[in-house]
Amino acid sequence: MTQLTRRAAVLSAICSLGGCSAISSLNAASEPLDTYDLRPVAGPKSGRRTTRTLLVAKPQASAPLTSDRILVKPDAVSITYLPEARWSDELPDLVQSVLVQSISGTGRLGYVGRSDAGPIPDKAMLVRIDAFEVAALQDSMFEARVVMDMTIINDSDQRVVGSRQFSQTRAVSSDTPQQIVIVFQEILNDLLPDISDWSIRLV
Q: What's the pLDDT tens digit per position in 48-100?
């Protein structure tokens, strides 16, 4: 019996034991997912300017959000992920990158970077992602929801300078990945300039 014939016999035996569905699942899991990114949105370029430095910490998030998958809540207590779609990075890393680029893009601070690199900062931004999800509503409707808590602290003494929650919910016209990501970007288009301006005023 040749190697190919032996392999076919093994696969046949597995299928007879109900293993074909498992093999099918493994094959499906290896298929590449469509990848989506989020764009930074610079805040106002006019306003207070300073040579001070700000480092943005990697956001904290619950375990379901610490993933590169797009979170979906079919009901109040269930969690799943959008099939055939993923973020370009794990969500906390992606949000950190977008925040750094958005605040830096104003040109109003001496330096903006991640907390794991760069100079000793004057201020640090702590971020907690409380929601970054799509919720299923009644009548086959959907909504995207983003909730982030921001805290600015002095690096030298860890004193809290200010805290604020930024949140927005928007309806989604369909459950296709592309439309969902478009709505997430529209939410960030509103939130990121406000976050940038607020943080710069506290640095």
A: 899 999 999 999 999 999 999 999 999 888 999 999 899 999 999 999 999 99
Location of structure tokens 């298929």: 31
Q: What is the pTM of this model?
A: 0.82
- The encoded tokens of residue 137 equal 């509503």
Judging by DSSP bridges, how do beta strands 53-56 and 123-136 pair with one another?
A: parallel
Q: How far is CA 35 from the centre of its chain?
A: 12
pLDDT in tens, 89-143: 999 999 999 999 999 999 999 999 998 777 889 999 999 999 999 998 877 789 9
Residue 150 near residue 192, CB atoms below 8 Å: no
> Higher confidence at residue 17 or residue 80?
80
Tokens 């860890």: give the residue.
Answer: 158
Q: What's the angle, vertex CA 79, arms to CA 184 and CA 127, rounded to 5? A: 50
Which residue shows structure tokens 């200010």?
162
150 vs 59: CA distance, rounded Å:
9
What is the Cα–Cα distance from 48 to 50, expressed in whole angstroms? 7
First to last CA, the chain: 74
CATH number of this structure's domain 36-202, picked from the four choices 3.90.79.10, 3.40.50.720, 3.40.50.10610, 3.90.1200.10:
3.40.50.10610
Amino acid at 104: S
Can you give the residue ranges of every domain in the chain?
1-31, 36-202
